[in-house]
Fold this protein.
Amino acid sequence: MIERKDKGMGQPIIFLDFDGVLHPEFSHPSKYFSCLPHFEAVVRRVPECEIVIASTWRQGHPLSELLKPFASDIAERIVGVTPVAQELVEIPDSLLAYEREAECHAWMRANERGYLPWIAIDDRAWLYRPFSRNVFLLDGSKGMQATDIEPLVLRLLECIK
């Protein structure tokens, strides 16, 4: 597991996917991070959030490279990346079929944040338990849109209450 630096016990935690969220799934590289301004608008409105990268990009890129597309005020709130499912041990039976949710839980346990609320922003529902309130699901063919900003802000603010 890679951690950038020790952060406080902020809340909630956002587990962030890239493909299908920060740009449409199967985008040409010239379109990578085209939806990033929408995500950054959300987290600027909820400054209590910490961000953990849960994208498969974490497997081929060091954290320092993953931070580059983000504005500096957002990059400083990225506290790490999730572990890879194939390397997890002691996965609860209820999460065996839900790879990304298992990775999120493993990161929270390893970083002593298991008690905090969390939301995963993703476009792949099957990576999480059905009907999970912890997933903010997006249309991967579009990525995050301006119309997603307000609903996501409201969901995050609900976590803080």
Remarks:
- Confidence is low (pLDDT under 50) at residues 1-10.
- Helices lie at 36-45, 63-66, 72-75, 99-110, 146-160.
